Amino acid sequence: MNDAAILSRATPTGSDPVSTEHFDVLIVGAGISGVGGAYHLQTQCPGTSYVVLEMQDTFGGTWWTHKYPGIRSDSDLHTFGYRFKPWRGAPIATAEEIRRYMGEVIEENDIARHIRYHHKILTAQWSSEDKQWTIDARRTDTDEHVRFTANFLYMCQGYYRHDQGYTPQWDGMADYKGRIVHPQTWPEDLDYTGKKVIVIGSGATAATVVPAMAQNGVGHVTMLQRSPTYFRTGRNAIELAEELRRLQVDEVWIHEIVRRKILFEQDAFTRRTFQEPEKVRQELIDNIRSLLGPDYDVDTHFTPRYRPWRQRLAFVPDADLFTGIASGKASVVTDEIERFTETGLLLKSGKTLDADIIVTATGFDLCVMGDIAFTIDGEPLNFADTVTYRGMMFTGVPNLVWVFGYFRASWTLRADLVGDFVCRLLADMKANGRRSVTVRLRDEDQDMKILPWIDEENFNPGYMMRGMHLLPKRGEKDEWAHTQDYWNEKDEFPKIDLADKAFVYG
Ligand SMILES: Cc1cc2nc3c(=O)[nH]c(=O)nc-3n(C[C@H](O)[C@H](O)[C@H](O)COP(=O)(O)OP(=O)(O)OC[C@H]3O[C@@H](n4cnc5c(N)ncnc54)[C@H](O)[C@@H]3O)c2cc1C
What we know:
There is one protein chain. The protein is an alpha/beta fold. The chain folds into 2 domains: 3-161 and 365-505, FAD/NAD(P)-binding domain (3-Layer(bba) Sandwich), CATH 3.50.50; 167-361, FAD/NAD(P)-binding domain (3-Layer(bba) Sandwich). It has 14 helices and 25 strands. The chain has helices spanning 3-10, 32-44, 62-65, 77-80, 95-108, 204-215, 239-246, 251-275, 277-292, 298-301, 320-327, 411-431, 462-467, 486-492; strands at 19-28, 50-53, 115-116, 119-127, 132-139, 145-155, 179-181, 196-200, 220-225, 231-234, 314-317, 330-334, 337-340, 344-347, 352-354, 357-360, 373-376, 379-380, 388-389, 393-394, 400-402, 437-439, 450-451, 474-475, 503-505. Strands 1, 2, 3, 4, 5, 6, 17, 18 and 21 form a 9-stranded mixed sheet that branches. Strands 7-16-8-9-12 form a 5-stranded parallel sheet. It has a 3-stranded antiparallel sheet with strand order 13-14-15, with no helix packed on it. Helix 7 packs antiparallel against helix 8 (251-275) and helix 8 (251-275) packs across helix 9. It is globular. Mean pLDDT is 94; it is low at 1-10. Flavin-adenine dinucleotide (FAD) binds at residues 28-34, 53-56, 61-62, 66, 73-75, 80, 119-121, 156-158, 162, 205, 370-372, 403, 405, 410-411.
């Protein structure tokens, strides 16, 4: 999209704003990151005025907008939950359970009065003269144009477009007489009882929808995948947590102990995927073989071509996907789509699949900074032209931090770390009478190689590959990259030297 298109799309209503309010910090989004950000601000920076703007009609972000059958986390809630609020349930949780937990955080900390729902932010303009951002938003309920000014932007808008998912265009889609559904916009009235359903995709979403439908009256559900994915399975319980509860240990302790155990084990597992990828690969595949029996064609359907962890490794609680397949209610086809037909799909192998409903579990549409059009002193800002400082600040962009979590560990672990950093930075600026902070490459960074946001060899899901050109760049040094390494960052972040030459204050 060119600059003119960005600006014209972003013009709120063409009208003057009906109100203008000022806050020290403006948080974008009331998902798990934004609600956590609000908690950190008010506990670590008391006296800081802040507002959370959220375009939906309630909090939850991902856990509100996704409503497909079975919607659940694929990481455990001890680490996906906040550091400061114990998780008491089973480790893999439904969207409803996650929202209930977030609701408690909002209630217990009196955060609700800071959140404005139905506020879709369209533009953010930085003025170096005023040293503040002007944020224009449209109220999605009244269509009013409202304006805010803020000293600091705390970007918690996630990384993908919420109103639509990514659906590739296949030949013949218009000919298909059944219903095509994307999991991100699941129709409330969709009745799949007794129906033949195809789910295109094999990621965490497909692995959730397929067993949920298999258990809830579908005629038959086929998971159609172009290529296989790795899955881990296990009981949806943590024995250590159960044992500590039997011993009546305090929940705050249980949360901390279980978090440490999970993090330790995840780190060990991730390291193994790099150190002995073949062995880990074999273990993962052998597990699936043991669930599906010796006659099942695991080589075709569950033997991925990539190294484990190069794409997010989904956990399947109680192996329900595989129970569904073993029961005959669900099946897997590994093939490619040639075209849609009136009754279903023609595959490249020549095989046809008929279906009443086709679910396109084909992923997200990545978006950078919530589709907000940014300008700095009137100049359109393209984040792809910036270099990231530790995956949270960007060269030449003043007073702004983005929460971008981890792929291989729970997102919220990083949301908490970034929250600590934001609060330390704000407190330091206040103590030193500074009104702006911008990161810039230091003299010693001038010859550093500038690379895409993430190393394709390291992690390469489709939505990242499709959207990489939109994302900021990274440098070769750790401080100029999102390292995806919680174990390193948890020690490094508190030690970030705010007097380093990378920070320019004004
Ligand atoms: C189905 C699904 C399952 C997932 N499971 C896991 C998991 O188990 N573990 C894990 O670690 N990660 C998981 N993820 C990744 C997940 O997105 C993050 O973990 C996390 O929920 C992101 O939280 P967030 O608050 O940063 O962003 P989001 O949840 O995306 O929330 C951002 C909020 O910002 C709002 N917003 C965006 N733009 C604007 C704007 N312009 N104006 C106003 N408001 C705006 C949105 O409406 C939204 O409410 C999952 C993702 C999906 C889609």
